[in-house]
Amino acid sequence: MRLDILTLFPEMFIGPFDHSIIKRAQEKNKAEIFIHQIRDYSKNKHKTVDDYPYGGGAGMVMQIEPIYNCISALTKERNYDDIIFLTPDGDILTQAVCNEISLKENIIILCGHYKGIDERIRNSIITREISIGDYVLSGGELAACVLVDSILRILPGVLNDETSALSDSFQNNLLSPPVYTRPAEFKGLKVPEILLSGDDKKIYAWKMEQAIARTQKRRPELLINNESD
Ligand code: ADE
Q1: What is the tens place of the pLDDT at every residue in 19-49?
Q2: pTM to 2 decimals?
Q3: Total structural domains within the chain
Q4: Cβ(10) to ligand 1 under 6 A?
Q5: Bridge partner residues of 62 (DSSP)
Q6: Best substitution site from 5, 87, 146 to test ligand 1's pocket, by max atoms within 8 Å of Cβ?
Q7: Above 80 in pLDDT, residue 75?
Q8: Which of 120, 152, 184 is the last residue of a domain?
Q9: Is residue 93 one of the residues assigned to a domain?
């Protein structure tokens, strides 16, 4: 999978992309990530990328030209399955959306800033708009990190234990059951007996029961969605 990320703040990706799963996905050649500075595509001699909104109002708006130039340079080289804009008014990111995007080959991710981007970009270039939740971030960069992590970790071969992404919360609309590790007892706090029993069938049934009970208690709407699937 190839990801091209367009941003005014490339440095914001240095930490998150150089560690853990995102780093591993790149090392294992499961993902290639390219970060593009939108400012480099401004034809303006001052390299400006934003301007005042037509009709007035607070804040600056990102201009169409530098973004168009950057995306055109990329689409000239290859086809893209999706050109995603991260925005609080996009479709909410869910595990189902992550699963779907993880199957794609080439993706462009556009990070907005300031008061937003010229609507003509959204209407004519963007194919999909995603929000990571009902709150407003200062820009799309942190949302892009969330999106990229959630996609790359489910690519086959990225996690060591092939089954571990499949058993994540939200796959199958169930929250994960509780997990324990050694010691079996700590200051009187015990690991459930069944997990020490070695009986795989019973352990599986217990985990399922726990997952359903936890989902029922914390996110009952997920079970209702399961029924309608
Ligand atoms: N940019 C600003 N806020 C955002 C959000 N909640 N999701 C995605 N992109 C954003």
Answers
A1: 999 999 999 999 999 999 999 999 999 999 9
A2: 0.94
A3: 2
A4: no
A5: 50, 117
A6: 87
A7: yes
A8: 152
A9: yes
